[in-house]
Queue: 3 jobs
Job 1
Amino acid sequence: MSTKAPIALAGACGRMGSAVERAVAAAPDLAIAFRADPKLAVAPGCGPDLSSLGVGSVSGIVDFTSGPGAAEAAEQAMRIGCVLVSGSTGIDDRARAALEKAARSVAVCWSPNFSVGIPLLTRALREAARRLPAGWQIEITEIHHGGKRDAPSGTALRLAETWKGERGGRLVHGRQGITGPRGADEIGLHALRVGDVVGEHRVLLGSAGETIEAVHRAQDRTAFASGCIEALRRLLRQGPGWYEWESLLCGD
Protein backbone atom coordinates (compact mmCIF):
# COMPACT_ATOMS: atom_id res chain seq x y z
CA MET A 1 0.00 0.00 0.00
CA SER A 2 1.44 3.38 -0.98
CA THR A 3 1.91 6.04 1.68
CA LYS A 4 0.17 9.34 1.13
CA ALA A 5 2.30 12.47 1.45
CA PRO A 6 1.04 14.59 4.38
CA ILE A 7 0.36 18.24 3.63
CA ALA A 8 -0.74 21.29 5.59
CA LEU A 9 -3.48 23.52 4.23
CA ALA A 10 -3.33 27.22 5.14
CA GLY A 11 -6.59 29.07 4.56
CA ALA A 12 -8.57 25.89 5.08
CA CYS A 13 -11.91 27.63 5.68
CA GLY A 14 -11.81 29.81 2.58
CA ARG A 15 -13.31 29.18 -0.85
CA MET A 16 -10.06 27.87 -2.28
CA GLY A 17 -9.23 25.98 0.90
CA SER A 18 -12.49 24.05 0.54
CA ALA A 19 -11.76 23.33 -3.12
CA VAL A 20 -8.27 22.04 -2.27
CA GLU A 21 -9.76 19.90 0.49
CA ARG A 22 -12.04 18.20 -2.04
CA ALA A 23 -9.22 17.74 -4.55
CA VAL A 24 -6.91 16.15 -1.98
CA ALA A 25 -9.70 13.86 -0.74
CA ALA A 26 -9.87 12.41 -4.26
CA ALA A 27 -6.09 12.12 -4.64
CA PRO A 28 -4.50 8.69 -4.14
CA ASP A 29 -1.11 10.08 -3.12
CA LEU A 30 -1.84 13.04 -0.82
CA ALA A 31 -3.55 13.59 2.52
CA ILE A 32 -4.24 16.70 4.57
CA ALA A 33 -2.50 16.27 7.91
CA PHE A 34 -3.07 19.79 9.26
CA ARG A 35 -5.58 22.56 8.60
CA ALA A 36 -4.76 26.16 9.48
CA ASP A 37 -7.18 29.09 9.48
CA PRO A 38 -7.86 32.02 11.86
CA LYS A 39 -11.38 30.58 12.32
CA LEU A 40 -10.00 27.36 13.80
CA ALA A 41 -9.09 26.81 17.44
CA VAL A 42 -5.99 24.92 18.50
CA ALA A 43 -6.77 21.19 18.35
CA PRO A 44 -5.12 18.03 17.03
CA GLY A 45 -4.71 18.44 13.29
CA CYS A 46 -5.77 22.08 13.14
CA GLY A 47 -5.16 25.56 14.48
CA PRO A 48 -5.33 29.27 13.64
CA ASP A 49 -1.90 29.17 11.98
CA LEU A 50 0.98 26.86 11.09
CA SER A 51 3.15 27.60 14.13
CA SER A 52 2.29 24.36 15.96
CA LEU A 53 3.57 22.13 13.15
CA GLY A 54 6.65 20.14 14.04
CA VAL A 55 9.80 20.01 11.94
CA GLY A 56 9.40 17.38 9.24
CA SER A 57 5.74 16.78 10.11
CA VAL A 58 4.46 17.50 6.60
CA SER A 59 5.89 17.16 3.11
CA GLY A 60 4.35 20.36 1.82
CA ILE A 61 2.26 23.42 2.60
CA VAL A 62 -0.55 24.61 0.34
CA ASP A 63 -1.33 28.26 1.02
CA PHE A 64 -4.44 30.16 -0.04
CA THR A 65 -4.57 33.04 2.42
CA SER A 66 -3.35 36.58 1.76
CA GLY A 67 -0.13 38.54 1.28
CA PRO A 68 0.76 38.42 5.01
CA GLY A 69 -0.43 34.81 5.16
CA ALA A 70 1.85 33.84 2.28
CA ALA A 71 4.81 35.45 4.06
CA GLU A 72 3.99 33.47 7.20
CA ALA A 73 3.63 30.25 5.21
CA ALA A 74 7.05 30.87 3.65
CA GLU A 75 8.65 31.31 7.07
CA GLN A 76 7.00 28.13 8.35
CA ALA A 77 8.03 26.14 5.28
CA MET A 78 11.66 27.09 5.98
CA ARG A 79 11.30 26.11 9.64
CA ILE A 80 9.57 22.81 8.92
CA GLY A 81 11.70 21.97 5.89
CA CYS A 82 8.94 21.31 3.35
CA VAL A 83 7.90 22.51 -0.09
CA LEU A 84 5.46 25.41 -0.45
CA VAL A 85 2.76 25.98 -3.04
CA SER A 86 1.07 29.36 -2.64
CA GLY A 87 -1.85 30.71 -4.61
CA SER A 88 -2.43 33.73 -2.38
CA THR A 89 -3.11 36.96 -4.25
CA GLY A 90 -2.45 40.52 -3.13
CA ILE A 91 1.25 39.71 -2.75
CA ASP A 92 3.24 42.78 -1.66
CA ASP A 93 6.99 43.37 -1.53
CA ARG A 94 7.30 41.85 1.96
CA ALA A 95 5.48 38.68 0.98
CA ARG A 96 7.46 38.37 -2.25
CA ALA A 97 10.72 38.77 -0.33
CA ALA A 98 9.66 36.10 2.17
CA LEU A 99 8.77 33.66 -0.61
CA GLU A 100 12.07 34.29 -2.39
CA LYS A 101 13.97 33.84 0.87
CA ALA A 102 12.24 30.51 1.48
CA ALA A 103 13.17 29.39 -2.04
CA ARG A 104 16.82 29.45 -1.03
CA SER A 105 16.24 26.48 1.29
CA VAL A 106 13.06 24.75 0.07
CA ALA A 107 11.15 24.37 -3.20
CA VAL A 108 8.61 27.18 -3.69
CA CYS A 109 5.97 27.77 -6.34
CA TRP A 110 3.78 30.87 -6.15
CA SER A 111 1.21 31.65 -8.81
CA PRO A 112 -1.80 33.98 -8.90
CA ASN A 113 -3.61 31.36 -10.97
CA PHE A 114 -3.11 27.59 -10.82
CA SER A 115 -5.42 26.68 -13.67
CA VAL A 116 -3.84 24.71 -16.51
CA GLY A 117 -5.08 27.15 -19.15
CA ILE A 118 -3.51 30.37 -17.86
CA PRO A 119 0.14 29.19 -18.12
CA LEU A 120 -0.54 28.18 -21.72
CA LEU A 121 -2.21 31.54 -22.41
CA THR A 122 0.78 33.30 -20.85
CA ARG A 123 3.17 31.33 -23.03
CA ALA A 124 1.14 32.13 -26.14
CA LEU A 125 1.08 35.83 -25.22
CA ARG A 126 4.86 35.86 -24.74
CA GLU A 127 5.32 34.29 -28.16
CA ALA A 128 2.92 36.81 -29.72
CA ALA A 129 4.80 39.68 -28.09
CA ARG A 130 8.03 38.44 -29.62
CA ARG A 131 6.67 37.89 -33.11
CA LEU A 132 4.10 40.62 -33.75
CA PRO A 133 5.37 43.68 -35.65
CA ALA A 134 5.76 47.03 -33.95
CA GLY A 135 2.53 48.95 -33.49
CA TRP A 136 0.43 46.17 -32.00
CA GLN A 137 -1.43 47.12 -28.82
CA ILE A 138 -2.82 45.16 -25.88
CA GLU A 139 -5.81 45.45 -23.59
CA ILE A 140 -6.50 43.04 -20.71
CA THR A 141 -9.87 42.64 -19.01
CA GLU A 142 -10.60 40.49 -15.98
CA ILE A 143 -13.92 39.64 -14.33
CA HIS A 144 -14.33 38.21 -10.83
CA HIS A 145 -16.96 37.87 -8.13
CA GLY A 146 -17.91 40.88 -6.05
CA GLY A 147 -16.08 39.63 -2.97
CA LYS A 148 -12.59 39.68 -4.51
CA ARG A 149 -10.34 41.98 -2.51
CA ASP A 150 -7.64 42.95 -5.00
CA ALA A 151 -7.89 44.63 -8.41
CA PRO A 152 -6.70 44.08 -11.00
CA SER A 153 -6.24 40.37 -10.40
CA GLY A 154 -2.78 38.91 -9.96
CA THR A 155 -3.33 36.94 -13.15
CA ALA A 156 -4.11 40.09 -15.15
CA LEU A 157 -0.97 41.70 -13.78
CA ARG A 158 1.06 38.61 -14.70
CA LEU A 159 -0.27 38.78 -18.28
CA ALA A 160 0.52 42.49 -18.45
CA GLU A 161 4.05 41.95 -17.16
CA THR A 162 4.55 39.16 -19.72
CA TRP A 163 3.82 41.61 -22.55
CA LYS A 164 5.84 44.38 -20.90
CA GLY A 165 8.82 42.10 -20.42
CA GLU A 166 9.05 41.52 -24.16
CA ARG A 167 8.00 44.91 -25.59
CA GLY A 168 8.09 47.45 -22.76
CA GLY A 169 5.20 49.79 -22.06
CA ARG A 170 3.31 51.21 -19.12
CA LEU A 171 0.30 49.87 -17.26
CA VAL A 172 -2.86 51.97 -17.53
CA HIS A 173 -5.62 51.01 -15.10
CA GLY A 174 -8.91 51.88 -16.76
CA ARG A 175 -9.70 55.18 -18.45
CA GLN A 176 -11.92 58.09 -17.50
CA GLY A 177 -12.66 61.53 -18.86
CA ILE A 178 -11.04 63.11 -21.88
CA THR A 179 -7.95 60.95 -22.11
CA GLY A 180 -6.99 61.84 -25.67
CA PRO A 181 -5.72 59.26 -28.18
CA ARG A 182 -4.47 55.98 -26.82
CA GLY A 183 -0.73 56.01 -26.19
CA ALA A 184 1.25 53.54 -28.25
CA ASP A 185 2.98 52.25 -25.11
CA GLU A 186 -0.16 51.66 -23.06
CA ILE A 187 -0.97 48.26 -21.54
CA GLY A 188 -4.66 48.61 -20.71
CA LEU A 189 -5.97 46.86 -17.59
CA HIS A 190 -9.65 46.71 -16.67
CA ALA A 191 -11.17 45.02 -13.60
CA LEU A 192 -14.87 44.07 -13.45
CA ARG A 193 -16.60 42.76 -10.34
CA VAL A 194 -20.02 41.16 -10.56
CA GLY A 195 -22.04 38.31 -9.07
CA ASP A 196 -20.24 35.06 -8.33
CA VAL A 197 -17.96 34.89 -11.39
CA VAL A 198 -15.06 32.58 -10.52
CA GLY A 199 -12.65 34.16 -12.99
CA GLU A 200 -12.40 35.29 -16.58
CA HIS A 201 -9.38 36.83 -18.32
CA ARG A 202 -9.53 38.32 -21.79
CA VAL A 203 -6.52 39.47 -23.82
CA LEU A 204 -7.16 41.64 -26.86
CA LEU A 205 -4.32 42.39 -29.27
CA GLY A 206 -4.88 44.82 -32.10
CA SER A 207 -3.28 46.67 -34.98
CA ALA A 208 -4.50 48.36 -38.16
CA GLY A 209 -7.16 46.18 -39.75
CA GLU A 210 -7.12 43.17 -37.40
CA THR A 211 -7.42 41.96 -33.83
CA ILE A 212 -6.56 38.78 -31.93
CA GLU A 213 -8.61 37.81 -28.88
CA ALA A 214 -7.92 35.08 -26.32
CA VAL A 215 -10.21 34.26 -23.40
CA HIS A 216 -9.75 31.98 -20.40
CA ARG A 217 -12.76 31.20 -18.20
CA ALA A 218 -12.63 29.29 -14.96
CA GLN A 219 -16.08 27.84 -14.45
CA ASP A 220 -15.30 26.33 -11.07
CA ARG A 221 -12.57 26.61 -8.42
CA THR A 222 -11.82 22.96 -9.08
CA ALA A 223 -9.65 24.22 -11.95
CA PHE A 224 -7.37 26.06 -9.52
CA ALA A 225 -7.38 23.31 -6.90
CA SER A 226 -6.49 20.57 -9.39
CA GLY A 227 -3.64 22.63 -10.84
CA CYS A 228 -2.35 23.46 -7.37
CA ILE A 229 -2.27 19.78 -6.43
CA GLU A 230 -0.44 18.94 -9.65
CA ALA A 231 2.09 21.71 -8.92
CA LEU A 232 2.60 20.24 -5.45
CA ARG A 233 3.25 16.77 -6.87
CA ARG A 234 5.86 18.11 -9.24
CA LEU A 235 7.43 20.32 -6.58
CA LEU A 236 7.90 17.36 -4.27
CA ARG A 237 10.37 15.97 -6.83
CA GLN A 238 12.44 19.17 -6.90
CA GLY A 239 15.25 20.55 -4.80
CA PRO A 240 15.27 24.02 -3.23
CA GLY A 241 14.51 26.89 -5.58
CA TRP A 242 11.86 29.15 -7.13
CA TYR A 243 9.65 27.36 -9.64
CA GLU A 244 7.13 28.99 -11.95
CA TRP A 245 3.87 27.10 -12.49
CA GLU A 246 4.29 27.58 -16.22
CA SER A 247 7.70 25.89 -16.13
CA LEU A 248 6.52 23.04 -13.87
CA LEU A 249 3.57 22.38 -16.16
CA CYS A 250 5.47 22.58 -19.43
CA GLY A 251 8.57 20.77 -18.22
CA ASP A 252 11.02 23.64 -18.76
Job 2
Amino acid sequence: MAHTCTHDTSAAPEAVWRIWSQPETWSEWNPDVEFVKLDGPLAVGTTGSMRTKRGGTHPIRFEEVNQGRSFQLETPAMPGTKFHFRCEITPRDDGSRLSQSISMSGPLGGLFSAMMGAKIAQSFDPILHGLAAKAEGAAG
Protein backbone atom coordinates (compact mmCIF):
# COMPACT_ATOMS: atom_id res chain seq x y z
CA MET A 1 0.00 0.00 0.00
CA ALA A 2 1.29 3.45 -0.92
CA HIS A 3 0.91 6.46 1.36
CA THR A 4 0.93 9.75 -0.57
CA CYS A 5 1.21 13.49 -0.04
CA THR A 6 0.47 16.03 -2.80
CA HIS A 7 1.06 19.74 -3.27
CA ASP A 8 0.01 22.08 -6.09
CA THR A 9 2.39 24.75 -7.38
CA SER A 10 2.29 27.47 -10.00
CA ALA A 11 5.72 26.31 -11.24
CA ALA A 12 5.84 24.60 -14.63
CA PRO A 13 6.65 20.88 -14.63
CA GLU A 14 9.97 21.60 -16.37
CA ALA A 15 11.03 24.00 -13.59
CA VAL A 16 10.18 21.43 -10.92
CA TRP A 17 12.00 18.63 -12.76
CA ARG A 18 15.19 20.72 -13.14
CA ILE A 19 15.35 20.89 -9.34
CA TRP A 20 14.00 17.46 -8.36
CA SER A 21 16.26 15.65 -10.83
CA GLN A 22 19.41 16.99 -9.13
CA PRO A 23 19.63 14.93 -5.92
CA GLU A 24 22.95 16.53 -4.98
CA THR A 25 21.04 19.80 -4.40
CA TRP A 26 18.12 18.39 -2.38
CA SER A 27 19.59 19.73 0.86
CA GLU A 28 18.99 23.28 -0.44
CA TRP A 29 15.19 22.91 -0.18
CA ASN A 30 14.45 19.59 1.55
CA PRO A 31 14.46 20.13 5.33
CA ASP A 32 15.18 16.42 6.00
CA VAL A 33 18.24 15.93 3.75
CA GLU A 34 21.81 16.77 4.74
CA PHE A 35 23.39 15.39 1.56
CA VAL A 36 22.96 13.00 -1.37
CA LYS A 37 25.89 11.44 -3.21
CA LEU A 38 25.26 9.44 -6.37
CA ASP A 39 27.62 7.00 -8.09
CA GLY A 40 26.41 8.15 -11.51
CA PRO A 41 23.70 10.15 -13.28
CA LEU A 42 20.05 10.04 -12.29
CA ALA A 43 19.09 6.83 -14.10
CA VAL A 44 17.60 3.40 -13.40
CA GLY A 45 20.10 1.39 -11.36
CA THR A 46 22.16 4.34 -10.12
CA THR A 47 23.17 3.90 -6.49
CA GLY A 48 24.41 6.27 -3.86
CA SER A 49 23.84 7.39 -0.31
CA MET A 50 21.61 9.91 1.41
CA ARG A 51 22.10 11.35 4.86
CA THR A 52 18.94 12.51 6.58
CA LYS A 53 18.69 14.64 9.70
CA ARG A 54 16.59 12.03 11.49
CA GLY A 55 17.84 8.68 10.27
CA GLY A 56 21.53 8.79 9.50
CA THR A 57 23.08 7.71 6.18
CA HIS A 58 21.23 5.22 3.96
CA PRO A 59 22.15 3.50 0.71
CA ILE A 60 19.77 4.41 -2.12
CA ARG A 61 19.08 2.98 -5.56
CA PHE A 62 16.93 4.45 -8.32
CA GLU A 63 14.40 1.82 -9.42
CA GLU A 64 12.63 3.94 -12.03
CA VAL A 65 13.27 7.23 -13.81
CA ASN A 66 10.84 8.82 -16.28
CA GLN A 67 12.64 11.95 -17.47
CA GLY A 68 10.67 15.10 -16.81
CA ARG A 69 7.95 13.28 -14.89
CA SER A 70 8.89 10.88 -12.08
CA PHE A 71 11.40 8.71 -10.31
CA GLN A 72 11.37 6.06 -7.64
CA LEU A 73 14.16 5.19 -5.26
CA GLU A 74 14.53 2.44 -2.71
CA THR A 75 16.43 2.15 0.52
CA PRO A 76 16.74 -0.72 3.00
CA ALA A 77 15.58 1.49 5.85
CA MET A 78 14.77 -1.18 8.43
CA PRO A 79 15.55 -4.87 8.93
CA GLY A 80 13.33 -7.00 6.70
CA THR A 81 11.93 -3.94 4.92
CA LYS A 82 12.72 -1.76 1.93
CA PHE A 83 11.20 1.68 1.59
CA HIS A 84 10.22 2.78 -1.93
CA PHE A 85 9.83 6.53 -2.43
CA ARG A 86 7.99 7.63 -5.58
CA CYS A 87 8.19 11.27 -6.65
CA GLU A 88 5.97 12.51 -9.47
CA ILE A 89 5.07 15.70 -11.31
CA THR A 90 1.66 15.98 -12.98
CA PRO A 91 1.12 18.95 -15.33
CA ARG A 92 -1.87 21.19 -14.56
CA ASP A 93 -3.29 24.16 -16.44
CA ASP A 94 -1.99 26.48 -13.72
CA GLY A 95 1.35 24.75 -12.99
CA SER A 96 2.05 21.33 -11.52
CA ARG A 97 0.87 18.85 -8.95
CA LEU A 98 3.74 17.33 -6.96
CA SER A 99 3.32 14.02 -5.22
CA GLN A 100 5.58 11.91 -3.08
CA SER A 101 4.62 8.52 -1.78
CA ILE A 102 6.10 5.72 0.23
CA SER A 103 5.44 2.01 -0.02
CA MET A 104 7.23 -0.79 1.79
CA SER A 105 8.22 -4.28 0.75
CA GLY A 106 9.88 -7.27 2.36
CA PRO A 107 8.84 -9.68 5.10
CA LEU A 108 7.98 -6.86 7.50
CA GLY A 109 6.87 -4.31 4.89
CA GLY A 110 3.14 -4.72 5.49
CA LEU A 111 3.52 -4.39 9.24
CA PHE A 112 5.72 -1.28 9.06
CA SER A 113 3.48 0.26 6.39
CA ALA A 114 0.43 -0.12 8.63
CA MET A 115 2.32 1.21 11.66
CA MET A 116 4.11 4.22 10.16
CA GLY A 117 3.30 4.72 6.46
CA ALA A 118 0.72 7.48 6.95
CA LYS A 119 2.94 9.34 9.42
CA ILE A 120 5.91 9.21 7.03
CA ALA A 121 3.71 10.51 4.20
CA GLN A 122 2.66 13.46 6.39
CA SER A 123 6.35 14.36 6.72
CA PHE A 124 6.47 14.90 2.94
CA ASP A 125 4.38 18.09 3.19
CA PRO A 126 7.29 20.44 4.11
CA ILE A 127 9.47 18.70 1.52
CA LEU A 128 6.98 19.36 -1.28
CA HIS A 129 6.44 22.94 -0.06
CA GLY A 130 10.21 23.50 -0.17
CA LEU A 131 10.46 22.08 -3.68
CA ALA A 132 7.54 24.19 -4.88
CA ALA A 133 9.01 27.37 -3.37
CA LYS A 134 12.37 26.67 -4.98
CA ALA A 135 10.76 25.98 -8.39
CA GLU A 136 8.52 29.06 -8.15
CA GLY A 137 11.55 31.19 -7.27
CA ALA A 138 13.55 29.75 -10.16
CA ALA A 139 10.70 30.55 -12.55
CA GLY A 140 10.43 34.15 -11.37
Job 3
Amino acid sequence: MSKSQRIEAYVKSFGLDTQEFDPCYLAYFVCFNSQEYYEAHDVLEHLWLQREDENHAFFKGLIQLAGAFVHLKKQSLRPWHPTDGRRMRPAVRLFALAKKNLSPYAPRHMGLDVSGVLGLAADQMARIEASNFSDNPWHPETAPKLELRLAGQN
Protein backbone atom coordinates (compact mmCIF):
# COMPACT_ATOMS: atom_id res chain seq x y z
CA MET A 1 0.00 0.00 0.00
CA SER A 2 1.42 3.38 -1.01
CA LYS A 3 1.61 6.36 1.33
CA SER A 4 -1.16 8.02 -0.65
CA GLN A 5 -3.41 4.98 -0.24
CA ARG A 6 -2.65 4.79 3.50
CA ILE A 7 -3.57 8.45 3.95
CA GLU A 8 -6.79 8.06 1.94
CA ALA A 9 -7.79 5.05 4.08
CA TYR A 10 -6.90 6.96 7.26
CA VAL A 11 -8.98 9.98 6.22
CA LYS A 12 -11.88 7.75 5.17
CA SER A 13 -11.87 6.15 8.65
CA PHE A 14 -13.02 9.48 10.11
CA GLY A 15 -16.25 9.43 8.07
CA LEU A 16 -15.99 13.14 7.30
CA ASP A 17 -17.80 13.25 3.98
CA THR A 18 -19.47 16.62 3.48
CA GLN A 19 -20.40 18.62 0.43
CA GLU A 20 -18.71 21.71 1.82
CA PHE A 21 -15.07 20.65 2.27
CA ASP A 22 -12.71 17.92 1.18
CA PRO A 23 -12.42 15.15 3.80
CA CYS A 24 -8.62 15.71 3.97
CA TYR A 25 -9.22 19.32 5.00
CA LEU A 26 -11.66 18.24 7.70
CA ALA A 27 -9.31 15.46 8.88
CA TYR A 28 -6.59 18.08 9.38
CA PHE A 29 -8.66 19.68 12.15
CA VAL A 30 -9.55 16.35 13.76
CA CYS A 31 -5.86 15.41 13.87
CA PHE A 32 -4.64 18.86 14.95
CA ASN A 33 -7.17 19.06 17.78
CA SER A 34 -6.16 15.57 18.93
CA GLN A 35 -2.53 16.76 19.11
CA GLU A 36 -1.65 14.49 16.19
CA TYR A 37 0.24 17.22 14.40
CA TYR A 38 2.30 14.97 12.14
CA GLU A 39 -0.87 13.27 10.93
CA ALA A 40 -2.54 16.67 10.44
CA HIS A 41 0.43 17.67 8.31
CA ASP A 42 0.21 14.46 6.28
CA VAL A 43 -3.52 14.52 5.53
CA LEU A 44 -3.49 18.13 4.37
CA GLU A 45 -0.26 17.68 2.43
CA HIS A 46 -2.00 14.85 0.59
CA LEU A 47 -4.67 17.31 -0.56
CA TRP A 48 -2.17 20.13 -1.18
CA LEU A 49 -0.05 17.97 -3.51
CA GLN A 50 -3.10 17.10 -5.61
CA ARG A 51 -4.29 20.68 -6.13
CA GLU A 52 -2.80 23.89 -7.42
CA ASP A 53 -5.60 26.37 -6.92
CA GLU A 54 -6.44 29.54 -4.98
CA ASN A 55 -6.12 27.62 -1.70
CA HIS A 56 -2.60 26.33 -2.34
CA ALA A 57 -0.83 28.83 -0.05
CA PHE A 58 -3.60 28.50 2.54
CA PHE A 59 -3.11 24.75 2.78
CA LYS A 60 0.66 25.22 2.81
CA GLY A 61 0.36 27.62 5.76
CA LEU A 62 -1.76 25.15 7.72
CA ILE A 63 0.73 22.38 6.95
CA GLN A 64 3.53 24.60 8.26
CA LEU A 65 1.51 25.40 11.38
CA ALA A 66 1.10 21.70 12.12
CA GLY A 67 4.81 21.19 11.44
CA ALA A 68 5.70 23.85 14.00
CA PHE A 69 3.61 22.02 16.59
CA VAL A 70 5.30 18.73 15.65
CA HIS A 71 8.57 20.36 16.72
CA LEU A 72 7.15 21.76 19.95
CA LYS A 73 5.50 18.47 20.92
CA LYS A 74 8.67 16.47 20.28
CA GLN A 75 10.78 18.99 22.21
CA SER A 76 8.33 18.84 25.10
CA LEU A 77 8.46 15.05 25.25
CA ARG A 78 12.27 14.78 25.09
CA PRO A 79 13.92 18.13 25.97
CA TRP A 80 17.15 16.31 26.91
CA HIS A 81 17.45 14.57 23.51
CA PRO A 82 20.25 15.89 21.25
CA THR A 83 17.88 16.38 18.31
CA ASP A 84 14.47 16.89 19.91
CA GLY A 85 15.91 19.30 22.46
CA ARG A 86 16.82 21.70 19.63
CA ARG A 87 13.44 22.00 17.92
CA MET A 88 12.43 25.48 19.12
CA ARG A 89 14.18 27.42 16.34
CA PRO A 90 12.73 25.25 13.56
CA ALA A 91 9.30 25.69 15.16
CA VAL A 92 9.65 29.48 15.10
CA ARG A 93 10.73 29.37 11.45
CA LEU A 94 7.67 27.30 10.55
CA PHE A 95 5.36 29.63 12.50
CA ALA A 96 6.80 32.55 10.50
CA LEU A 97 6.26 30.73 7.20
CA ALA A 98 2.74 29.77 8.23
CA LYS A 99 1.94 33.40 9.03
CA LYS A 100 3.28 34.51 5.65
CA ASN A 101 1.19 31.97 3.76
CA LEU A 102 -1.99 32.41 5.80
CA SER A 103 -2.03 36.23 6.07
CA PRO A 104 -3.63 36.85 2.65
CA TYR A 105 -6.61 34.71 3.71
CA ALA A 106 -7.47 36.69 6.87
CA PRO A 107 -9.78 37.34 8.54
CA ARG A 108 -11.73 34.14 7.69
CA HIS A 109 -11.34 31.54 4.97
CA MET A 110 -12.88 28.12 4.38
CA GLY A 111 -14.65 28.19 7.74
CA LEU A 112 -11.49 29.03 9.69
CA ASP A 113 -10.78 32.12 11.78
CA VAL A 114 -7.48 32.83 10.03
CA SER A 115 -6.89 35.96 12.12
CA GLY A 116 -7.08 33.80 15.24
CA VAL A 117 -4.60 31.31 13.76
CA LEU A 118 -2.23 34.16 12.91
CA GLY A 119 -2.51 35.37 16.51
CA LEU A 120 -1.78 31.85 17.78
CA ALA A 121 1.36 31.59 15.63
CA ALA A 122 2.52 35.08 16.65
CA ASP A 123 1.95 34.29 20.34
CA GLN A 124 3.89 31.02 20.16
CA MET A 125 6.78 32.74 18.37
CA ALA A 126 6.85 35.63 20.84
CA ARG A 127 6.85 33.33 23.87
CA ILE A 128 9.67 31.19 22.49
CA GLU A 129 11.76 34.18 21.42
CA ALA A 130 11.20 35.99 24.75
CA SER A 131 12.67 32.96 26.53
CA ASN A 132 15.67 33.00 24.19
CA PHE A 133 14.48 29.65 22.80
CA SER A 134 14.66 27.95 26.20
CA ASP A 135 10.98 27.63 27.25
CA ASN A 136 8.50 25.62 25.24
CA PRO A 137 4.99 27.10 25.46
CA TRP A 138 3.35 23.87 24.29
CA HIS A 139 1.85 21.58 26.92
CA PRO A 140 -0.62 18.75 26.26
CA GLU A 141 -3.08 20.14 28.83
CA THR A 142 -3.23 23.55 27.16
CA ALA A 143 -2.60 22.60 23.54
CA PRO A 144 -4.48 24.87 21.11
CA LYS A 145 -7.53 23.73 19.21
CA LEU A 146 -8.61 25.07 15.86
CA GLU A 147 -12.31 25.64 15.33
CA LEU A 148 -13.71 25.09 11.89
CA ARG A 149 -17.11 26.63 11.31
CA LEU A 150 -19.18 24.78 8.75
CA ALA A 151 -22.05 26.33 6.82
CA GLY A 152 -25.14 26.71 8.94
CA GLN A 153 -23.19 27.04 12.19
CA ASN A 154 -23.32 30.32 14.10
